[in-house]
Amino acid sequence: MPRPILATIHPDALRHNLARCARLAPDAKVWAVVKANAYGHGIERVFEGLRAADGFALLDLDEAQRVRDLGWRGPILLLEGVFEARDLELCSRLGLWHTVHCDEQIDMLAMHKTHVPHRVFLKMNSGMNRLGFRPQAYRAAWSRLDALPQVGEISLMTHFSDADGPIGVAAQMAVFQATTEDLPGERSVGNSAATLRHMEPAGTDPGIAAASDWVRPGIASYGSAPDHPEHDAAHWGLRPAMTLSARVIAVQALQPGDTVGYGSAFVADRAMRIGVVACGYADGYPRVCPTGTPVLVDGVPTRTVGRVSMDMLTIDLGPKPDAGIGSQVILWGGSGDAVVPIDAVARAAGTVGYELMCALAQRVPVTVD
Q: What is the third-level CATH fold of 242-368?
């Protein structure tokens, strides 16, 4: 039989999460963000769950081709734009919208031969200092684009660096609004954190709603809270879109003083039953997760003990005395009241839920429920 580990994708959760974000921004259109192979979930697996979106946003041409091959005829946005001039040929053929964040991309457009003008999203660097034109150069970039016959509609966008924390979005929004005040075109400013935390009427910044013709909920669509640990996914009404589960493949009876795993990192202080689970860091479970990382065994909360190995990890069976070989272990995800938040596992590992989703190993079988 196959090794007993499985990742399950939940389309109903995707639909629910996307609808939740849409309700918070009722006057905006919604991008389904499927970059990084849909945050590790698989574009083909999430498509049905996200097809109620107004468009799909992603990074590269291969992902765009895959979405078109699934039958999507609506907008597709390249979030980083094109990387070389010949990419524009496929943009024309597939009808892709694309971000423009530097002068070199405008130069490429100026040399491009096309019968159908391109829809572009001109990105402002309003403080993230990653991609985009600085405010003092933004209007000149807009004028260059507006003068090109290769360019049709120009939309305006920026990305927030601190929407998930106490700094917030006010300073960047003020820069964006002041710079773009009289420029035509739709606006896109709302990532997951901005959509959840700063939209009217539930949010704190009415300027966000006014500047959000499009919102871009990424991680929220997959059931992770962008501002964890301040808030968890349940606080925002989000459901996990992925469950990683495995089975107990061995049981060890420990006496006080016995140790578990490499480095004898865990020492039993009492008689214990330990379950050995068919999941390790080669499956994408973080090696650095310490003793105490939450899991469920047959629906009952318990914890990991000792170090995570390449192919196995160990858990405390004390809270579920009748658990044994074949018992189900949920490493993250789940449904209803039986959920291990992926953000809680990520926090134990000193990282974020995004990384765990994207790090799911290819050897883990995946199904769609």
A: Lyase, Ornithine Decarboxylase; Chain A, domain 1 (2.40.37)
Residue boundaries of the structural domains of the chain: 11-222, 242-368
Residues 136 and 228: their CA atoms lie apart, in Å, by 34
What's the predicted TM-score (pTM) here? Answer: 0.95
Over residues 313-325, the pLDDT tens digits come to 999 999 999 999 9
What gap in Å lies between CA 119 and CA 20, rounded to an integer?
Answer: 28
State the catalytic residues: 35, 262
- With a CB cutoff of 8 Å and minimum separation 6, the contacts of 170 are 205, 207
Residue 166 near residue 197, CB atoms below 8 Å: no
pLDDT in tens, 99-113: 999 999 999 999 999
* Contact (CB, 8 A) for 209 and 199: yes
Contact assessment for residue 230 and residue 236, using Cβ atoms and an 8 Å cutoff: no
CATH 3.20.20.10 fits 11-222, yes or no: yes
